[in-house]
């Protein structure tokens, strides 16, 4: 996944990362661009419910500036919430959000 503020070329931009839901496992990971509709990423199989799950998605982007957000949904069907909270006492929440500049 590009780092926030990174410049990339127009066309298909590959995003990828890892997600984790302790003792539950990950059911899906989705991305959205500029708060548009969620697009489901390709999720690699997990080794166990307590491992990180790798994901990736290529998104077609024209030149411009974009906000890209990621959310995970666990195997119980509970989606990650947008509200940011610290790790203690119950685990961090919030969508991972980056800004990407796309050049021609």
Architecture overview:
- The protein is mainly beta.
- It has one domain (6-103): Immunoglobulin-like (Sandwich).
- It contains no helices and 8 strands.
- It has strands at residues 6-9, 11-19, 26-33, 39-40, 42-43, 53-61, 64-74, 96-103.
- The chain has a 5-stranded mixed beta sheet, with no helix packed on it. Strands 2-6-5 form a 3-stranded antiparallel beta sheet, with no helix packed on it.
- It is globular, with a radius of gyration of 14 Å.
What's this, in brief?
With 104 residues, the chain is mainly β. The protein has strands at residues 6-9, 11-19, 26-33, 39-40, 42-43, 53-61, 64-74, 96-103. The chain has a single domain (6-103), classed as Immunoglobulin-like, CATH 2.60.40.650.
